[in-house]
């Protein structure tokens, strides 16, 4: 009998709780009509920085890639030539891709980078209908030279653009259909091979 | 006006009203659930999300309708219609109100309650055939559960209603309502009412008895393989069933269109709708509050608790009526 | 150390162990699984005592000792760690890092760098240097393969010692002294060596890096698999490092003492870019009305099977022929013979180039036997050109045991080392070889007449002596192909006979497995091409559209050696194992899969995988009874060698470059300047007489025609009165020309051509 009454009471408590909630004020923010101010060091979409002279900071060292706990970064280095000098020093990132779907925005890549090239900006609106478009290659990560220089998001002379603007407007070289960049031949091969083996 | 035309017009009217009710019952469910979970709920389509049902319907219509290669395609295509037609058929006998010109229903059947129960128990065929004909594992499991659950709870449900029938002395739905002019049966038949509410939830496969489509265990249960319009039909059937059992509850226990506090200035249909709305609200409230039962507990509860209680209730009612009568 | 070595007992870190007298402390420590850090010491190069990172504390000695150059002593008590040792190492590291650039993020060694590792283990974490660091040149182009960063060099001298002790080439040296010392070649010329890649592995830091791998990847990105290099018949174990479906680099296998001793030649190491070359064939191609049309695999195999059946039905099995297999695995070679013999075809031959024989007969020796030989006789093309790793063993025998080296023929040695030279095998009689107990004979397997003459001589010597014979031919798995039966039997035609039959219109169907006879078969490209075009249905399995594939009816895209598994025989007949190291491009099949598909389309039963592997991993049979075994050659090939050259003009020598060939080298864009130029190489004396200079352009007029536009290379070691041209270059095919004939230089013109590989 005791347990029966206990059961009834707890049932009633449950119904009371949900009934109470029914009338409470809802904490939901009506995004996107209302946007919340995020913390100043919010970890959002990445960006590759440049030096004041326009050279890329990234030297293609892959330290961000090895630091990344989500294995989201792929870097393939190459050598600067006198005719085509991308970064100071000998090496630059010929290919730099972040899979923003894998990224957990922990910022460890930023920590690992010896040249402060990769930084996380507060931008977070990057939804899209195709998975492939979440692989951000250099064309969308590298800031245009006119965006100004700086080593951290709060050091942006020209401010932080409210949307991805011109950076995103550029077309990606990533093969949207397959989700891999076209020259990532190996990855494509591997997926193909699975099909062949079956 | 020939009788048949009259019936067709009445049917069309009832269907229209019922389908609209279905659409807004769905919206209401989403809203109420959301509020009970401290969310705003659908609010993007139309003012306060009021056009959400239309948007959903359009989406359903345009989605691809898939039939698995392993499915028994005829039965697979037929099953949703069985579910929906039986769910709709019930409304043929439900009286919504009464006025001087007569009963507000498509047809007044003197064994109305029996017609209702026979149709709703046909509805299970839609579900079990859907699961079986999908030719895949989860739907099959879902339909097995559904069959077992229906059989188990059908008994208790019917028994719980018999008490009302004894008190009213008739199986005509209008007659039952008239019998409640003084006292709603929810008071003398409180136990019966509770059993009816619980079993009705189980009969309509709704939370916390929605084991038939328990997504954590069975993906989508019997409708895993369905998509597009056919999936939509199951959806409609489920909500129509919910409205049906709410109507029955109103008719059997809440005095149908009888006004409360003698406020007979308000038309009977308004009272009816309000009462049905209240029962539907209870359904949604249940869903927002209670977690899903374990399958063995569900069966045990049906056979070991509800059925004996319903039998007891029936015998007690009969004894009292005999003793008094 | 003669007789049984004495044993000494010592204690290292509290563990007592007994090792032979004379063992170095660093090696003794390895026995108890204690690694003492080293930079300059290398087990194959010996101690140098230069870097002093290996400091250990030996009780009863006042100062720390270097483990790499201290031999064990009875009752020694050694501590490899402890505050004293770590203090010493910290000081050493502080000096090593004094001027070190620490550009680890862009350094190719980063991640597998001993300097990084030991700095983390023993370094003090911060520099006390207040003055600017010494600036030295970076990214110095040391030669066709190597880039040097002088700032990173810690002057351990492993690279220079490798050049001195192992290859005997002595071109790398340390220039200048103190903190200004740099690595350079002694002469200031580019560092050219066929073993150059090894110094990048030896270098404990990132000072020496490979051009082909520079900045390509990081060690942690690479998926490594252990397989066998099949670029030549040496059979070195090789580690394949793959990333994104591309072979980015290959590394030697330190434990491979039976064959490579932990070295690799540059061909094996660097010629791996072709695996991911966009020109790879990825779909069967059928030539229809002069156009290539793509075909599905099933259609292609069906077509092939149908044609074979039709040919057998209409013209008998003698109208079929199968060529090649010397570049494939044993399994594949076995199946070629199995499938074609099942059709009744006996026209089966692996010999599609100059090499005509693969197994040396029952006196065949092992790698270790080379080292023990007191005299080494090299007949024809020396092993350095065909099996470079074998030549390192020969160099070891010469430098460490003073073996006597004798060359037969006109071929030049790539290094300066004392040797004698005779013109023909029978002239060896004058050299008093019966003084020696152990003699090694190397033959190139090309000219059976030379082979049988050599055989006669060697057999004559054999009494009471150990004779080791080797056929160091150019075909990678010739031993496997020959051992698996890809030689004509019971009246079948050999490759020369097949082409003759083709020319006469007697062949209905020819299958060419992974071979390029148009480029390599003696007789010349035009003649082979004509013969192939005369066969109604020619199938070629290839990775690329080679000149041979271009003439075929059906080309089947095959897989390379790093893309499949199987077994091969090395040059000594030992079984080596292939394992896939990189994913093959979609659409390709290995020759094994092709053959199995063909067999099933033909209705021929094939042995199951287990039986096939057993068959392939048997010990290599001695197919031949000795050099120039008549059983392997057609009538007429075994006539006595042609009479000596005429008095005037130059004798033509046809050599092979390490990077000769029309397939893998031609389709590897990473090789760059490693690809050989068409050269005419002369000795200094000959050049002076002929009045040509290094870099001139000449034509060579021979009986078969004229070779035009060859770049003159004046190089030491060439025999006076000879001119050496290279075989196997797609742009200047030399297969039409017969070696040994007298030729004339014509049309000499001065034209500066960039320095390439001589
Ligand atoms: S933020 Fe974290 S998860 Fe995202 S790329 Fe950087 S390291 Fe990887
Ligand atoms: S972003 Fe920084 S850490 Fe990543 S590769 Fe470039 S330089 Fe290295
Ligand atoms: S040699 Fe080693 S320590 Fe020096 S820069 Fe390269 S990785 Fe760093
Ligand atoms: S280049 Fe490398 S191997 Fe050569 S001395 Fe310097 S550190 Fe040693
Ligand atoms: S390893 Fe001993 S001194 Fe260099």
Oligomer: heterotrimer
| Class per helix and strand makeup of chain C | alpha/beta
Q: What's the total helix number of chain B?
A: 11
Largest sheet of chain B: 2 strands, antiparallel
Number of strands of chain C: 33
Cα gyration radius of chain B (Å):
20 Å
The parts of chain B where pLDDT drops under 50 for at least 5 residues are none
**β-strand amount of chain C:** 15-25%
- Portion of residues in beta strands of chain B equals under 5%
Radius of gyration of chain C: 28 Å
Give the arrangement of secondary structure elements.
The complex is a heterotrimer of chains A (198), B (325) and C (758).
Chain A: H1 2-23, E1 46-48, H2 63-67, E2 73-79, E3 91-99, H3 108-112, E4 118-120, E5 135-136, H4 138-141, H5 165-169, E6 174-175, E7 180-181, H6 185-197
Antiparallel strand pairs in A: 1-4, 2-3, 3-5, 6-7
Chain B: H1 3-36, H2 52-62, H3 73-89, E1 98-99, E2 102-103, H4 112-133, H5 137-168, H6 173-179, H7 190-203, H8 215-218, H9 228-253, H10 268-289, H11 295-324
Antiparallel strand pairs in B: 1-2
Helix pairs in contact in B: 1-9, 1-10, 2-9, 3-4, 3-9, 4-5, 5-6, 5-7, 5-11, 7-9, 7-11, 9-10
Chain C: E1 7-12, E2 15-20, H1 25-31, E3 55-58, E4 65-66, E5 77-79, H2 83-96, H3 114-122, E6 140-141, E7 146-148, H4 158-166, E8 172-175, E9 182-185, H5 197-202, E10 208-210, E11 223-228, E12 237-243, E13 246-252, H6 266-270, E14 285-288, E15 291-294, H7 297-315, E16 320-324, H8 330-342, E17 348-349, H9 367-372, E18 375-379, H10 383-386, H11 388-401, E19 404-408, E20 420-422, E21 438-443, H12 448-461, E22 466-471, H13 478-483, H14 495-503, E23 509-513, H15 517-520, H16 525-533, E24 537-542, H17 547-550, E25 554-557, E26 566-569, E27 575-578, H18 591-602, H19 609-616, E28 650-656, E29 679-682, H20 684-690, E30 697-702, E31 705-714, E32 722-727, E33 742-749
Parallel strand pairs in C: 1-5, 16-17, 16-23, 18-19, 18-21, 19-20, 21-22, 23-24, 24-25, 28-32, 29-31
Antiparallel strand pairs in C: 1-2, 3-4, 3-5, 6-7, 7-10, 8-9, 11-12, 12-13, 14-15, 14-25, 26-27, 28-33, 29-32, 30-31, 30-33
Helix pairs in contact in C: 2-3, 7-18, 8-18, 8-19, 14-16
One iron/sulfur cluster is lined by residues 58-64, 75, 93, 112-113, 115, 117-118 of chain A.
């Amino acid at each position: 009998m005791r347990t029966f009454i206990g059961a009834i009471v707890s049932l009633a408590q449950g119904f009371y709780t949900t009934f109470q909630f029914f009338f409470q004020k809802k904490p939901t923010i009506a995004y996107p009509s209302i946007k919340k101010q995020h913390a100043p060091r919010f970890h959002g979409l990445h960006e590759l920085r440049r030096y004041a002279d326009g050279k890329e900071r990234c030297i293609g060292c892959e330290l961000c890639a090895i630091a990344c706990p989500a294995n989201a970064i792929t870097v393939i280095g190459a050598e600067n030539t006198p005719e085509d000098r991308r970064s100071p020093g000998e090496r630059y990132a010929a290919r730099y891709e972040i899979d923003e779907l894998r990224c957990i925005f922990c910022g460890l890549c930023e920590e690992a980078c010896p040249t402060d090239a990769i930084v996380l900006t507060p931008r977070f609106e990057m939804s899209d209908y195709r998975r492939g478009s979440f692989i951000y290659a250099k064309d969308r990560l590298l800031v245009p030279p006119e965006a100004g220089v700086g080593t951290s998001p709060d050091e942006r002379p020209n401010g932080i653009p409210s949307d991805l603007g011109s950076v995103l407007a550029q077309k990606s070289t990533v093969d949207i259909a397959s989700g891999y960049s076209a020259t990532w031949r190996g990855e494509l091969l591997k997926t193909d091979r699975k099909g062949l083996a079956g | 006006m020939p009788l048949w035309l009259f019936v067709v017009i009445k049917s069309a009217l009832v269907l229209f009203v019922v389908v609209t009710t279905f659409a807004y019952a769905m919206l209401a469910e989403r809203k109420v659930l959301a509020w009970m979970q401290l969310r705003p709920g659908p609010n993007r389509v139309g003012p306060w999300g009021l056009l959400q049902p239309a948007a959903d319907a359009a989406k359903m219509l345009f989605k691809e309708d898939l039939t698995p290669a392993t499915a028994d395609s005829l039965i697979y295509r037929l099953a949703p219609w069985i579910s929906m037609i039986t769910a709709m058929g019930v409304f043929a006998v439900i009286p919504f109100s009464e006025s001087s010109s007569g009963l507000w229903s498509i047809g007044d059947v003197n064994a109305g309650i029996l017609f209702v129960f026979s149709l709703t128990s046909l509805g299970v065929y839609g579900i079990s055939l859907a699961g079986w004909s999908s030719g895949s594992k989860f739907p099959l499991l879902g339909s097995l559960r559904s069959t077992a659950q229906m059989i188990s709870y059908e008994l208790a449900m019917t028994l719980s209603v018999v008490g009302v029938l004894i008190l009213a002395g008739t199986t005509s739905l209008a007659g039952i309502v008239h019998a409640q002019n003084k006292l709603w049966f929810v008071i003398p038949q409180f136990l019966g009412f509770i059993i009816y509410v619980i079993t009705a939830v189980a009969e309509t496969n709704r939370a916390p008895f929605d084991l038939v489509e328990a997504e954590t265990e069975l993906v989508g249960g019997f409708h895993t393989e369905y998509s597009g319009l056919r999936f939509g039909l199951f959806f409609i059937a489920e909500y129509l069933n919910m409205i049906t059992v709410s109507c029955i509850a109103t008719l059997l226990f809440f005095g149908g269109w009888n006004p409360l506090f003698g406020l007979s200035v308000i038309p009977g249909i308004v009272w009816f709708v309000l009462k049905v709305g209240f029962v539907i609200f209870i359904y949604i409230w249940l869903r927002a509050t209670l977690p899903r039962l374990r399958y063995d507990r569900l069966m045990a509860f049906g056979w070991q608790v509800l059925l004996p209680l319903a039998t007891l209730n029936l015998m007690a009612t009969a004894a009292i009526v005999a003793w008094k009568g | 150390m003669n007789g049984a070595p004495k044993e000494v007992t010592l204690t290292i870190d509290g563990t007592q162990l007994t090792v032979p007298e004379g063992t170095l402390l660093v090696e003794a420590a390895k026995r108890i699984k204690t690694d003492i850090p080293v930079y300059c010491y290398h087990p194959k190069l010996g101690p140098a005592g230069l870097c002093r990172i290996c400091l250990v504390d030996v009780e009863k000695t006042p100062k720390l000792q270097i483990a790499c150059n201290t031999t064990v002593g009875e009752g020694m008590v050694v501590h490899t760690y402890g505050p004293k040792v770590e203090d010493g190492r910290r000081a050493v590291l502080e000096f090593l890092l004094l001027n070190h650039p620490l550009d680890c993020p862009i350094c190719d060694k980063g991640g597998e760098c001993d300097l990084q590792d030991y700095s983390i283990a023993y370094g003090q974490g911060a520099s006390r240097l207040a003055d600017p660091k010494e600036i030295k040149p970076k990214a110095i182009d040391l030669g066709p393969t190597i880039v040097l960063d002088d700032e990173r060099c810690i002057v351990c001298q492993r690279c220079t010692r490798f050049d001195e002790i192992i290859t005997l080439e002595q071109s790398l040296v340390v220039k200048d002294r103190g903190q200004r010392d740099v690595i350079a070649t002694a002469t200031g010329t580019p560092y050219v060596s066929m073993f150059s890649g090894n110094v990048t592995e030896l270098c404990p830091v990132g000072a020496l890096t490979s051009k082909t791998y520079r900045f390509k990847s990081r060690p942690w990105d690479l998926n490594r698999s252990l397989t066998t290099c099949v670029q030549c018949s040496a059979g070195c174990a090789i580690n394949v490092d793959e990333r994104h479906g591309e072979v980015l680099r290959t590394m030697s296998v330190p434990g491979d003492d039976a064959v490579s001793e932990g070295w690799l030649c540059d061909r094996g190491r660097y010629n791996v870019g072709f695996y991911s070359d966009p020109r790879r064939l990825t779909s069967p191609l059928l030539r229809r009305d002069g156009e290539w049309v793509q075909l599905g695999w099933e259609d292609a195999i069906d077509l092939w099977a149908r044609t074979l059946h039709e040919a057998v039905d209409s013209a008998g099995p003698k109208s079929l022929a199968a060529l090649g297999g010397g570049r494939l695995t044993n399994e594949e070679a076995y199946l070629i013979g199995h499938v074609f013999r099942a059709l009744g075809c006996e026209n089966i031959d692996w010999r599609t180039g100059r090499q005509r024989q693969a197994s040396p007969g029952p006196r065949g020796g092992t790698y270790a036997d080379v080292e023990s030989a007191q005299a080494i006789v090299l007949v024809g093309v020396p092993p350095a050109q065909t099996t470079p790793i074998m030549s390192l063993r020969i160099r070891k025998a010469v430098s460490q045991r003073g073996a006597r080296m004798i060359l037969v023929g006109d071929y030049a040695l790539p290094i300066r080392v004392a040797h004698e030279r005779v013109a023909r095998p029978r002239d060896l009689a004058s050299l008093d070889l019966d003084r020696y107990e152990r003699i090694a004979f190397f033959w190139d397997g090309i000219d059976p007449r030379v082979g049988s003459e050599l055989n006669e001589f060697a057999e004559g010597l054999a009494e009471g002596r150990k004779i080791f014979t080797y056929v160091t031919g150019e075909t990678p798995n010739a031993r496997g192909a020959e051992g698996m039966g890809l030689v004509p039997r019971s009246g079948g035609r050999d490759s020369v006979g097949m082409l003759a039959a083709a020319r006469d219109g007697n062949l209905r169907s020819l299958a060419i497995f992974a071979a390029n006879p148009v480029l390599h078969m003696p007789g010349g490209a035009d003649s082979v091409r004509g013969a192939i075009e005369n066969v109604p249905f020619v199938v070629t399995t290839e990775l690329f559209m080679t000149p041979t594939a271009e003439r075929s009816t059906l080309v089947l895209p095959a897989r390379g050696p790093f893309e499949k598994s199987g077994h091969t025989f090395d040059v000594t007949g030992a079984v080596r194992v292939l394992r896939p190291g990189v994913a093959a491009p979609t659409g390709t099949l290995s020759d094994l899969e092709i053959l199995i598909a063909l067999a099933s389309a033909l209705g021929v039963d094939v042995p199951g995988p287990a039986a096939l592997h057993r068959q392939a991993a048997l010990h290599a049979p001695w197919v031949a009874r000795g050099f120039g075994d008549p059983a392997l050659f057609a009538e007429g090939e075994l006539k006595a060698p042609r009479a000596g050259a005429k008095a005037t003009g130059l004798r033509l020598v046809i050599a092979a470059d390490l990077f000769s060939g029309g397939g893998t080298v031609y389709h590897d864009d990473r090789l760059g300047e490693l690809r050989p130029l068409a050269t005419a190489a002369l000795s200094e004396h000959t050049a002076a007489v002929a009045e040509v200079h290094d870099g001139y352009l000449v034509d060579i007029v021979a009986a078969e025609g004229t070779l035009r536009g060859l770049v003159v290379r004046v190089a030491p070691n060439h025999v006076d009165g000879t001119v050496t041209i290279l075989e196997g270059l797609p742009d200047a095919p030399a297969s039409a020309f017969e070696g040994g004939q007298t030729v004339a230089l014509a049309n000499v013109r001065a034209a500066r051509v960039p320095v390439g590989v001589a």
